[in-house]
Amino acid sequence: MDLVPALREPLKKVLGPATAKVMAEHLGLHTVGDLLHHYPRRYEERGQLTHLADLPMDEHVTVVAQVADARLHTFASAKAPRGKGQRLEVTITDGSGRLTLVFFGNGVHKPHKDLLPGTRAMFSGKVSVFNRKLQLAHPAYELLRGDSEETVESWAGALIPLYPATAKLESWKLAKAIQTVLPAAQEAVDPLPASLREGRGLVSLPEALLKIHRPHTQADIADARARLKWDEAFVLQVALARRRHAETQLPAVPREPRPDGLLTAFDDRLPFTLTEGQRKVSAEIFTDLATDHPMHRLLQGEVGSGKTMVALRAMLAVVDAGGQAAMLAPTEVLAQQHHRSVVEMMGELAEGGMLGGSEHATKVVLLTGSMGTAARRRAMLDLATGEAGIVIGTHALIEDKVQFHDLGLVVVDEQHRFGVEQRDALRGKGKQPPHLLVMTATPIPRTVAMTVFGDLETSVLDQLPAGRSPIASHVVPAADKPHFLARAWERVREEVENGHQAYVVCPRIGDEEETPKTAKKGGPPQDDGDKRPPLAVLDVAGQLAEGPLSGLKVEVLHGRMQPDDKDAVMRRYAAGETDVLVATTVIEVGVNVPNATAMVIMDADRFGVSQLHQLRGRVGRGSAPGLCLLVTEMPEASAARQRLDAVASTLDGFELSRIDLEQRREGDVLGQAQSGARTSLRVLAVIEDEEIIAEARAEAAALVAADPELTSLPGLRTALDALLDEEREQYLEKG
Asked: Quick one: which of 356, 420, 461, 655 has the fewest CB in 10 Å?
């Protein structure tokens, strides 16, 4: 974070080119500062052994244990036909369990000499299974002898740090490298203002780095982590606060709705009253739209909470004020659906320039990549002349050729499916920066909103409109209890017999060229290497139509169909002509068929928690209760099953998003995880450290308001430069 000359020193100068190359390629560590910020994952106490009982499969682990037994076996093999092959089996124990280590061939001599019963050592390798027993094959090891001067020096203190490591670079080698560069920590420039540090009783940065890498007590570790968490939270929040401050300096055209214009006419014809939440959030948005700098607001709302209604009222207000509004949807199916529902909600108010249109009416146009040339040209002309006040489209809206008369508001639906570059390109189409409203149906815990969307103000719609029904969710363990799956299809038939409809969701389409032709259809998944391919829409639809759902009208829907075909399928389903729709996740957002009451999600373990919650929100949209069945072949004890049990146990999207985040870890909150760069959060946990993030946000806002250029804090500026390398700076710019 704090790259001053000593900390900017390249590792190859300090550690030698070979080690530096491995660190750069496998851990993304390039300088002394990078290495000092590579913190231990956990610590082993000398007198306390790791739990061998809890070893994860297929992961690279480091364990501290004692040799219980070592035996050398000879065997015959293709390479050693005369029984001259050698295999050393070493059993290690830590009181909680036992683990076998195996060494073969010429590799047996050194460990045979080193690993005598009673010896304690650190072992590192990948956990695998042989003959139904866990083992490490050819692990690297480091003996923990009390008498070796070097070992005592490198493991000084009572706590052994275990670092995130790779097969090419074991934890203890990293520890030795860190010991080499640790003196440079004294030169780390502190990014926290002295008043903040003293007010919260935090140790200095050099002391924190020393204590995290060479702690003598658990209290040392706690001091170091408390301090380093503040660094990460504060520097990130300062970056976001400066972003927000810069936004307030940009000019924008204030858009105030006319008192008796399009919005009033629309509200007058609504057949229902808005919820308290919708009115409150609309008021926040209208206040923002009336200011002379761009609105940046995130609108969160559970599936079905009426976000589209709030967004449409904001768009109408902007049209009233003489501007245009664009809504960007992630898929063509969703763009068409939004267009259809907006036109239906507006009625004659959407028929601007047409016979029968209301006096306040405007034109609502659709623009997608697959439209015919004539329709596309007409839509683009309506946008350029200002004839169309509202446009709904996919990323086709971003193309250079698309010109707006006066773009005043951009609404982005389902933020997590859009790159920030796309959002930015659309914002660049206004004469001045347009106002921005980002909608998401994925509930985001407050702290994540403060970090990931820290440059957006947040509004939450947490009330469901009247008339929505509860959804019952159950896990269907298809491998353990096949009769449960048979019962699931009976339930679907019962729903259809009662006049309702159902969805069946699969992870894959099924016409991909790379699909293995010999893929096993049944059977529980093996280890990742030979896990069967995910179930596919085209296969499952055929099997259901001929088998358990024969006699019912079954249709398919997926992203690779022609837009007209997709639209026709959705129209038939919405009209009740189709009983069961077998689809991919194209139905995840925005599809609204109140008569659909049942959903069966095949291979549910292949979807994320938030995605399952989104999918489930497609049923129970009418007056009849909804049913969601999560079909999986994963065993009961697996993490995947626990995830599904969590989804089945609650309908609270915010609770599920916390579970989702805890399971996925935060990744890089500045969006860099996808590009392979290291995470900017090493000790800060977005869920657990809610208090620190909230306090850091308040401190950062006050600091930036008083000194936007941070002239009095050179250490903080340096830390920001390191956090905001060019790519991340652009990410925030575009956010």
From this structure: 356
Q: How far apart, in whole angstroms, are the C-alpha atoms of residue 64 and residue 54?
A: 13
Q: Name the helix (H) or strand (E) containing 220.
A: helix 218-249
- The band of 303, judged by pLDDT with boundaries at 50, 70 and 90, is low
* DSSP structure string for 599-656: EEETTGGGS-HHHHHHHHTTSS-SSSPEEEEEEE-S-TTSHHHHHHHHHHH---HHHH
CA-CA-CA-CA torsion sign (526, 528, 530, 535): positive
- The SS3 of residue 374 is helix
Q: Which helix (H) or strand (E) element contains residue 670?
A: none
Centroid of chain to Cα 388:
36
Give the span between the Cα atoms of 23 and 169, in whole angstroms.
8
pLDDT > 90: what percent of the chain?
Answer: 29
- Of 334, 399, 364, the closest CA to residue 618 belongs to 334
Longest dimension (CA), the chain: 98
Residue 510: closest CA among 557, 552, 446: 557
139 sits in which H/E element:
none
Query: What is the DSSP code (8-state) at residue 533?
Result: P
Q: Considering the chain, what is the average pLDDT of its residues?
A: 81
The two structure tokens encoding residue 224: 């170091």
Q: Is it the case that residue 677 has pLDDT exceeding 90? A: no
Cα–Cα distance for residue pair 174/11, rounded to 1 Å: 12
Provide the pLDDT for residue 672: 37
Quote the pTM value.
Answer: 0.62
Return the closest-CA partner of residue 652 out of 613, 594, 606: 613
More confident residue, 604 or 667: 604
Q: Report how far residue 652's alpha carbon sits from residue 678's, in angstroms, rounded to the nearest whole number.
A: 32
Dihedral of alpha carbons 508, 513, 514, 515, sign = positive
Cα of 607 vs its chain's centroid, Å: 12
The per-type count for the chain, helices as H runs and strands as E runs, is: 26, 21
What are the structure tokens assigned to 527, written together?
Answer: 């280890």
Q: What is the pLDDT of residues 432-447, one digit of tens each?
A: 888 989 888 766 666 6
Strands 363-367 and 407-413: unpaired
Task: Give residue 75's identity as a one-letter amino acid code.
Answer: F
Report which DSSP code applies to 198. Answer: H
Residues of the chain with pLDDT > 70, as a percent, come to 81
Question: Which pLDDT score, from 0 to 100, does residue 379 have?
Answer: 92
Measured distance CA(731)–CA(419) in Å, rounded: 10
∠ CA 684-299-688, rounded to 5°: 20
Residues 6+ away with beta carbon under 8 Å from 533 = 508, 515, 516, 519
Q: Write b or e for each residue in 17-56: b if 16 or more Cβ atoms lie within 10 A of its Cβ, otherwise e.
A: eebbebbbeebebebbbbbbbbbbeebbeeeebbebeeee
DSSP classification of residue 590:
S
Local structure of 109: helix, strand or coil: helix
Cβ partners under 8 Å of residue 227, min gap 6: 202, 203, 204, 205, 207, 208
The residues, ordered by sequence, that sit 6+ positions from 175 with a Cβ below 8 Å of its Cβ are 154, 155, 160, 161, 163, 213
Q: How many residues does the chain have?
A: 735
DSSP string, 1-17: ----HHHHSBHHHHH-H
Give yes or no for a contact between 41 and 85, defined as CB atoms under 8 angstroms apart.
Answer: no
Q: Which residues contact 391 (CB under 8 A, 6 or more apart)?
A: 324, 325, 326, 327, 364, 365, 366, 367, 379, 383, 397
Sign of torsion over alpha carbons 165, 168, 171, 173: negative
DSSP code for 169: B
Q: Which amino acid is at 479?
A: A
Q: Within a 10 A sphere around the Cβ of 473, how many other Cβ atoms?
A: 22
Query: What's residue 425's pLDDT?
Result: 74
Distance CA(700)–CA(703), nearest Å, equals: 5
Dihedral (Cα; 137, 140, 146, 149), 10-degree rounding: 160
